[in-house]
Amino acid sequence: MATMLDGGVGAERGTPRITFATRVSYGTGAIANGIKNAAFTTYLLFFYSQIIGIPAGIVSAAVALTLLVDAVADPLIGRWSDLTRSRWGRRHPFIYGAAFPTALFFLLAWFPPAGLTDFQMGVWIFATASLTRMSISAFEIATSAMTPEMTDDYRERTKLFSLRWWFGYAGTYGFTTLCLLTFFAATPEYPRGQLNPDGYPGFAIAGALTILAVILICGIGTHNRIPYLRQAEVRTERTPLLGHLREMGTALKNRAFLAIFGFGVLKFSAIGLYSATNLFFGTYLFELTATQLAILTIDSLVAATIAAPLAPIMSAWIGKRASSMVFAVVGVAIGLSPLLLSYLGWFFVPGDALLVPTLFAIGALYGAMVAISLINTSSMLADVVEDSAVTTGRHEAGVFFAASSFMQQCSTAIGIFLAGRLLVWSDFPAKPAPGAVSEEAIRSLVIHYIPCSIGLWTLGALILLFYPITKAKHEANVAALRAREAEARGAGDGQFGAARPGPLIAGY
């Protein structure tokens, strides 16, 4: 039977506590995915359809097809990470290896060659988006899988994910705010700077350089934890391909994971839909300038700052599952209110002095509630790792977070595809002249969007009813695994236990 030597976890006796600097470095890495998400979900469709003039259907279809790449690449990356043995452990080689490719492929996505047909442009979007997503998946899967290895404490995990989500929001919305105030600042020719083609090269270069920097900061800043993270098992026999697939399939059949996966597919589709259409609503429905959009982007940073300390409190008060469900549905209902009221003619009209402050307040409240849901769902997935290990005897965080990465990326692509379809159904023009977007097209986009968004969130929340892990069950899982660790150390006569402070279990 295969055996492995695990590095200690933060809660294990003899393991140094995680320092503040390490925590911040760990969280900083989420900025990279935040920038990628902001650029690809909010600006990519807008850039290619409104600036370059490619039909929205082609752009959204090209992005949606990248889910085929994710379906193959993400599970392989997760499995590869779980099985990697190196002097840098099994997570950090992927963190360091992802830095330069992610930055390069992200940059290329915004510099399409001149003279391409619409179809060829679609191929370019597909290729650069796929390569960017595969590269950042290697980083995200490794860092996310590292989280349950840093601590097995029920509430401490939520705190770590709160920190990571805050930095992720900072990447998404902080970067967007800075770009709206600089690269997309209003000019006499382009009073709505997001329509200025000259702003996008600087936007792309700044994004690529920031992604490179924060990935390296995350890797270097958490490098000191390598001796205390679980290491890959030592396999005495070569495992055939079918054996790998069988082990992955056994893990992914976990009921708790399937509930999170079902919720995640629907919620990230809704998030992708929101991100891809939000700039259209801001530009054409509320007629906001780049400066006003920048102000409204800050509300998401406010939301993340509110949610980060509240998420662990809510998980302790009503449980992770309940807080994930309630805050998701109620928050989204609040967030949709400006669109519904505008459609009915009961909201502030463009130019009204109260429009931006009201949108800001609603956005901060809605964003905080959704962020609490997202943080607690991520923490729930970390708890699945021990729940699965009790049954399978294997600690496969990489596989679970690879599946989560695939869930997020493919679902976001689905959301962008849905956004493209809504634009087509609403007869929204590509690269319109100023004032060429009709009120009928805008209203059609609103009334198609509202039921699609609330439907995805509500159905996803209902799926979470099948998630079975409570705090008591998690603690029982941890206790059972520690008992196995103690038994395994005893069987090994302390040979390895004296070398490093970590559990030794067959296949765990």
Q: What gap, in angstroms, lies between the N and C termini?
A: 11 Å
> Which blocks of ≥5 consecutive residues have pLDDT under 50?
1-13, 493-508
Main β-sheet, spatial strand arrangement = 2-1-3
Query: Which class best fits the helix and strand makeup?
Result: mainly alpha
What best-fitting shape do the alpha-carbon axes yield?
Answer: globular
Q: Order of SSEs, N→C?
A: EHHHHHHHEHHHHHHHHE
Radius of gyration: 23 Å
Residue share in β-strands? under 5%
Q: How many beta strands in the DSSP annotation?
A: 3
Average pLDDT number: 84
Largest sheet: 3 strands, antiparallel
What does this structure look like?
- It is a single chain.
- The protein has helices at 20-28, 30-52, 56-83, 92-108, 118-150, 154-181, 200-221, 241-252, 255-285, 290-318, 320-344, 355-392, 397-425, 439-463, 471-491, and strands at residues 3-6, 230-234, 504-505.
- With 508 residues, the chain is mainly alpha-helical.
- Helices cover 73% and strands 2% of the residues.
- The model is unreliable at 1-13 and 493-508 (pLDDT under 50).
- The chain is built from 15 helices and 3 strands.
